[in-house]
Every structure is written in structure tokens, then in C-alpha cells.
Amino acid sequence: MKLALITFLSVIFLVGSVVFAQDNPVSIFQLQYTTAADGKSPYHLKQFVDCLGGVVIAKVSRSVPRIVIQDPTVYDAAIQGADCYWGAIQIKDWTYGDLIDHINIGDWIELNNVPIEDHRGTTFIQYGKGNTKSSFSVVGSNYPIPEPLVVDVNDITSPIEDPTDPGSYYVGNHNAEKFESMRIKVTRVSVVEKGPGKAGDNYVLQSSDEPDDANFSCWAADYMNPDAAGDYHPYVEEGQHFCSVEGFLEQYTNISDGFDYYQIITTGTDDFLITQPADFDGDCDVDLVDFSGFSEYWFASCPTDPNLCGGADLTDNGIVDMDDLTEFTSNWMEGLN
Hints:
By secondary structure, the chain is an alpha+beta fold.
């Protein structure tokens, strides 16, 4: 009887000291959605979970490798209701290769027995941290990368510098929390400042439509961009105008050091669009005004320099013809968002 009691108490002790994965797997939405003022996941440090996962949209080689996955169903209001956000999450691969080396961009991966932890404002799946027996499975490949969610630049407003503590920056609100780790895009912006923030590698993107209103600006950074040269991508210079800049959104918070801000993290040269193809009037969209400009050169000959036809020789074949019209129509109405 005494032995049975000891065994029973031992089992109770073990169950109380070990956190098991849930019986039911959870979605990225469930991991990310929160109403907490600090933005922390409801699963932060509470339990190990099995996650239904999403499509791999980025792989980053860092001291601890990172993967970003996104669930494309967040764009389907019939599935998610009104909250078509909270759809992506970052993973830190503490096995240093067991995960990142065996997955590809476009794979849909599920994860098992993983801890969830918020660190410096960002929610992470901590794959394999603390020698936990995390595992993953690739449930499908070659999924299309979710299109970036086009947001107004003021939806992720730049932080405000503390007038009493120069060099310290605090975001005025956390409305951008719902975009965390999701692939997003801002349009018609220009670089107006380089160097603010914790590591001095951020830059400020100001809306070209509201050039004098600091509320219409956001921060970006290239520190996960393999095409960057040092702290910045070669395209990033003060005064540079972009039709669009895209990447995934990350938060960096360290209040004790004077920082709390969001930043768009670019992941390649293709994240920058300087000019919109077939945009002849330079307003970053392709519409009837551009078609009017294009039609002026219909069947014009451009034997040596396409610019002699105002750029209408889109296929560089020396004449403005049906091939160029096909190229023009393929860009029709692009850039308006």
C-alpha cells in the first residue's frame, strides 16, 4: 500500500513538473491573436504546442537560424471572420539546422511539441530550445507565397523620439501588432533618414503623398537581407523614392534601453520596387494616362535606343508592336494599391 502511494505521488509530481503538448493542434492565428496590452501571445511560456503551421516565406541564416511561416487562410474572411490578420510567426531553429536545412520556401510545415516565447516584442516558436523534442513535418510543397498585405504607411507609424532622452524611440500605439511577422507592403514612399534605432541600421520611409506629416512614415531595416551591403541595401539612400517596399513586420522592444518600435524587414532586392513597369508618367501605377502615352508610339521604330520611343518599346525589339502591348496589358492597373 505504501509503495502504491509513493508511486502515485511520484506520478503526480512528474505530471506537475512536465508540460505536455496540447491534444489539439493550434493555428498561427491562435498563437498570435491577443488583446493584451503588451502584445504577448496567450501561449507565452505556458505550454508546449502542436502547431498547424503555414507556408515558409523566409529563411534567414543568423546566429540562431530563423524561419518565417504564414498561413494564407488569414486572407479568407469566410474562415477568419473580420480578423484577417495575426497570420504569421517566426521560428528560431535552436537545432541549428535540423529544421532550416530540411525545408524550402513554399513548403507548408507543421510543428510538434514546440514552446512559444515572446522576446523583445516578437512572438517566436522556439524550435528545439532547451533540448526539447520538437519535430516538424512537410505536409506539402510548392505553395504560392502569400501576396503581401498592402497597408497604409501610417498603419505602422514611426516611433517618436523621447524629447527628454534623445536617441530613445517609443511607438505611440501598437496597432501594427496584428501585422507581426506577416508579409506586408507600403507604397509610394521615400527614404528620408538613415540610422535611428537600437542598432543604427533602420531607415525612415516617408509617404510621398504626405511628405510633411511624420505620422505618415514607418521604419524599415535590411539586417536580414542577404543582398544588403553592410547595414543597408544598396538602393537605400536618402532621397530614394520607391513605388513600394515590402517585407515581414517585426517589433523590437527593450524599454530599459529606450526602444520600442516596429520595422519592415526586407529579405531581398525584389522587395524594392523603384519604378513600375509600363508607368510612363512616373506616378507608380499603370492606368489610362499611361496607355495614352504608350499609344502615341504605336508602331514607332526605335532601332537603337528604346528611350527614343519614350520607353514604349517594353520588349526592346526595336519597334512598338503587339509584343509591347501584351507586356503593357500584363501590368495594367498594377501599383494602384
